Amino acid sequence: MKPNDIFRLYHILRTFLIYGIDEALPRNRYTRPLRCWRKTLFWLRNRHQGKPLGERLRLALQELGPVWIKLGQMLSTRRDLFPPEIADELALLQDQVAPFDGKQARALIEQALGGKLETWFTEFDENALASASIAQVHTAKFNSTQQFAGKDVVIKVLRPDIQPQIDADLSWMYKLAGWIPRLSAEGHRLRATEVIREYEKTLRDELDLRTEAANAVTLRNNFLDSPMLYIPQMYADFCHQNVIVMERIYGIPVSDIDALERNGTDMKLLAERGVQVFFTQVFRDSFFHADMHPGNIFVNPQHPENPQYIGIDCGIVGKLNDNDKRYLAESFVAFFNRDYRRVAQMHINAGWTPEDTDIDEFEQAFREVCEPIFAKPLSEISFGQVLMNLFNVAREFNMQVQPQLVLLQKTLLYIEGLGRQLYPQLDLWDTAKPFLQNWLNEQMGVKAFAHKMQAKLPYFTEHLADFPEKLLDALNQQKLISRQLREINKKLARQQRWQKKGLTLLIGSIVFLGTLWQFATLPIGLSAVLFFVAFALWALGFLLP
């Protein structure tokens, strides 16, 4: 272990102790040494005793730096693991850190592009437009030699030496996570190592900006010419592992309600379109932007009567398969119909819970958790909370929730909060129901059959010319198989006949020899009968075909 690693561990522990995070640990024989170490080795006291645990945890993560801030942001979405008072505080974590030097940013960009910035750009601003934990962005403009001459752009560049910092912090996160299950029985429920593994995957995806560029291209193509959502253009020739160049957008931050209202924005339509964009991504495209917090969403100031969202920062996306979409659609429809039996049966049929799950007990568990939600009007019910309740019940019956569904739940909570902030009277169920019902209708009945046949039509067309030849081959193969089966049946029949002959002769021999052995002690009449039986069995054995 290097000295820097030891110093980093000391800094992590010291920060947690100063904010009193250790006070959340249970008092038992496993944690007693930790409390002793606090008093004997660290001599540190909780300097924030008047603040609730959630706030202290948020402040501690902020002090530990960008990797821990992003961990806190991810944990804020795991409301299945943490109580609301902690999850709500973690959701306040802001991914804003001081920018690194603009001259260093210029050097990194030029190294990635392979030449001076002036070769392609003009008006490069060394003052960062925005700075986050993983990267920062600078503004520029294509020069007159380029295809997009005069176009305003944003250049995003990874922070220098971010990789070693992430590796070091992740290493300690795994070590600390490994200790959590040992501290209490409740620690196993948190599945800390699994959470860190999920976080690492997300974090490492963000370290390759080409992934963000590819995601943005996909989302842009999915909503090309759409009045609901606009994704800035990526300039593929300038996209590298640590640098990407994209179109600069000018919009009103979606959180700036006053500015939107001053611009005359149709707030009701804007809120409804947020829900429509989400469900379109989920059910039409199976590919959704999974980091749609207010900092990544803007509104096009043009045509406020027909408002259009602008989405940026596509580093985190979710992908769904048909099982995921069926789970989401059927869960919501069954929930709003109060058909908890259907919800339970769906989990078992999908193979997400064991086949031997007690369906009656499963149904009752869903009923007990979901039924109180209907005390609210339908228009006020939170889809994200419903999904979280379904996850929590299913987990008690040994269902492991898929990461893509957790991402979806987080995004859904963002969309709901945003929609009701823009237009408090938004009826989410009324807006979402057509998407859910239409998708289910497309999966069943004549329409679904026609859709599947249409999807397979190119395959059928391609192989139609080969069909007669393949049919003849199949018929010939069938004849060959039939002939081979007849030969096998004949052999089996012969083997069975010889087995019958042998068994009959063997029994006759045993009767004959037994009678001969005991002839002196047996009555003469019985001996005669037994000899007759033995000769009869021999005769039968020889006469069998």
Automatic annotation (TrEMBL):
GO terms for molecular function: ATP binding; protein kinase activity. It comes from the Bacteria. Residues 93-347 form the ABC1 atypical kinase-like domain. Signal peptide: none annotated. It is a single-pass membrane protein. The active site is at D291. CDD domains: UbiB (cd13972). Pathway: Cofactor biosynthesis; ubiquinone biosynthesis [regulation]. It is found in: Cell membrane. ATP binds at L129, A130, S131, A132, S133, I134, A135, Q136, V137, K156. InterPro entries: ABC1_dom, Kinase-like_dom_sf, UbiB, UbiB_bact, UbiB_kinase. GO terms for biological process: regulation of ubiquinone biosynthetic process; ubiquinone biosynthetic process. It is an enzyme of class 2 (transferase). Its EC number is 2.7.-.-. Its main location: membrane. PANTHER family: CHAPERONE-ACTIVITY OF BC1 COMPLEX CABC1 -RELATED, PROTEIN ACTIVITY OF BC1 COMPLEX KINASE 7, CHLOROPLASTIC. Belongs to the ABC1 family. UbiB subfamily. This is Probable protein kinase UbiB. The lineage of its organism: Bacteria, Pseudomonadati, Pseudomonadota, Gammaproteobacteria, Pasteurellales. The gene is ubiB.
